[in-house]
Amino acid sequence: MNLRNIQYPFLFEVPVLKHMAGFAGLLKRDPRGWPSDRPVVGMFLCLDPLIFCCQPQPRPFGVAHHLATRFPDETFVFLVPITMSLERRVNALALAAQHRRFQKTHPRASLIILANTRDEERLLRRLGVDVRYAPQNMFVDEGMYHPIPGRERRFDAIYNAQLAPFKRHELARTLPSCAYVTKMFTTWSPQLKRQHLGKFVCSLPYNHVILNDVTADDVVPMDHVKVNRAMASAHVGLCLSGLEGAMYASIEYLLAGLPVVSTRSRGGRDVFFHPDTTLIVDDDPRAVQDGVVAMKARALPPDYVRATTLRLIAEERAHFNVFIDGLRGRQVDRTDPRWSFEYAHKLARFGSISEFEALVRAR
Questions:
Q1: Torsion sign over Cα 270, 321, 94, 41
Q2: Is there a domain that residue 3 lies in?
């Protein structure tokens, strides 16, 4: 075993350690002493009262601790989505401990975890966590991903996934053709990136192609326009991991009009799957190949795949809007019919800490 892989036991599917890694969350401490120009990700859904969605970077709760510390007399409501599955009980226990620590430190604030699955919601609630079912894939902006009429579909399938072993790219190896959109974790060392990328490239079967630009030791990420164009070059989107978060790529495929072939999974990517537009197969290369053949044979119109998905999304968005109205204590006029608050893609905006603080002071 490569010792560097032990640094990332979940990503590299290291036996035993991948299940125990969640204990590291017990040791995390809320970040302190951030400079005012530090970039963070989040957004206010409301300024009266203060409802702030925190992307959980840095872990566990992003900028929530900083804002609650800077404004101790304010009654914040922090919403924190789950980006990696908490259906491993160890990970859930670590988050529950962090949640209790946060609430004890900031008694005037409320910290609500947004679960991607009903199982996550039930587990966290039993552990005393304030949690709400709100699958994160409904927060993807459908305007960014859409069918492109008339584009030639050169590949049987496309797999948009991080280049890490837990994504199980090998399950696609028997497909006659497959395109890959990928990237590598920025925390990896150049040596680890180079080693892992080289191994993947050398193992690619005939007619399997990485669509990104590739350097000697890294992959150049694509923006959403290029990703959307790449998806239009394939017949089927692949989802091959067994356990992760909600997997944004899964909903991007469907919004772009691609039917999906997926292995069984935990983490929430199947929330907006429909029997017409998705096929669940065994964790086996032949099963994946047969699934792709079956979905291609259905010849579903891309607009049908997209419309079917949007109907499912609209139901969950309606529930979430009611939830936000309840936190706000009132309904407001909508400028966007989809949302009861000012919206941004994935409920995430980049800004400096000082910019978010300024909004609190000026409200």
A1: positive
A2: no
353, part of any domain:
yes
172 and 288 in a single domain? The answer is: yes
CA distance 337 to 297: 36
Is 285:203 a contact under the CB 8 Å cutoff?
no
Cα separation, 27 vs 223, in Å, equals 35
Domain count along the chain: 2
Query: Average per-residue pLDDT in the chain?
Result: 91
In a domain, 283, yes or no: yes
Within this chain, do residues 37 and 97 fall inside the same structural domain, yes or no? yes
Token pair in block for residue 304: 């049908």
Q: What is the pLDDT of residue 239?
A: 98
- In which domain, by residue range, is 286 found? 155-309
Q: Does 15 score more than 60 pLDDT?
A: no
- For residue 314, being part of any structural domain is answered with no
Report the first-to-last Cα separation within the chain, whole angstroms. 55
* Global pTM exceeds 0.90: yes
Q: What's 210's domain CATH number?
A: 3.40.50.2000
Task: List CB contacts of 275: < 8 A, sequence separation 6 or more.
Answer: none
With pLDDT > 90 as the criterion, what percentage of the chain qualifies? 80
pLDDT at 20 over 70: no
- 45-54, 79-88, 281-290: lowest mean pLDDT where? 79-88
pLDDT digits (tens, 9 = 90+) for 140-168: 999 999 999 999 999 999 999 999 889 99
pLDDT digits (tens, 9 = 90+) for 178-203: 999 999 888 888 888 898 899 999 99
Q: What are phi and psi of 120, to 5 degrees?
A: -60, -45
How far from 350 is each of 54, 136, 214, 344, 347, CA to CA, in Å? 11, 18, 27, 11, 10
Whether 161 and 295 map to the same domain: the answer is yes
> Would you say the C-alpha torsion 220, 226, 232, 236 has a positive or negative sign?
positive
Is residue 109 domain-shared with residue 159, that is, in the same domain?
no
Per-residue b or e along 123-162, where b marks 16 or more CB atoms closer than 10 Å to that residue's CB: bbbebebebbbbbbbbbbebebbbbeeeeeeebbbbbbbb
Distance (Å, rounded) from C-alpha 242 to C-alpha 263?
Answer: 7
Residues 189 and 302 in one domain: yes
- Last residue of some domain: 267, 290, 309? 309
